[in-house]
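It is worth pausing here to work through a concrete case rather than discussing structure prediction in the abstract. The textbook approach is simple: state the sequence, then state the predicted structure, then interpret. We follow exactly that order.
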Amino acid sequence: MSEFNYAMASSADDASTQVKGTGDGSLIAGGMTLIPSIKLGLATPTDLIDLAGAGLSGISVEGTTVTIGAMTRHVDVASSKEVVNAVPALSGMASGIGDPQVRNRGTIGGSVANNDPAADYPAACLGLGATIQTNDREISADDFFTGLFTTALKEGEVITSVGFPIPERAAYVKFPNPASRYALVGVFVSDGPMGIRVAVTGAGINGVYRESSFESALSGAWESATLDGVKADESSMASDIHAAADYRAHLVGEIARRAVAASV
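Step two, the predicted structure:
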């Protein structure tokens, strides 16, 4: 494991200032991706700036929005009465992330900032039309996720919270890899103030994306049968040792139908 300097941040702005002053520093939230990457030699930061003391955790519901602090753990989202009452699909999704160890350490901000192409939270953000708040600006989910492991975050920019509009109905269903529990295909559907949205994770060659053909179909009737015969574009699917592109394309349709049927 490589050597690095370690420092605690007292706020998001402090974290931003500190990481900008390093040679090749990284922010660390729950560390569920960064620490294994360092151990494997895939990441070699000169400095780690810990966000644990930056005061970025917490959940609140105001009006039609659920706001979740960036350092809020998955287990806290899963067990939050506020989230369960406002967006049960969101709490249900959080309860299925990884395993108990991951859920007790991993954070929403870390997941969103990392933008793993098979992660669950990016689908929730895109599927609900969330707004990502940083120490500098607000970014819509549609503009935030820009590709595999890449986002619209600028150097030193720190996610402080994520705001989710409360939908009329929503659901998240995933077909998990049995070993990692990452989504081989995951689909988040919602019908609410941001319109009808269908977000897919684990399948696309460019990471999380919205399935516009499914959204158009569901605009006519919010029923799982509406998606019969509507197919995802196989050419836009990833193909790897876990699943071929044609299988993923098939799963997108099947999982989307299950999500619509499960939406409340």
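Step three, interpretation. The longest strand covers residues 183-192. The chain has two domains: 5-50, 59-262.
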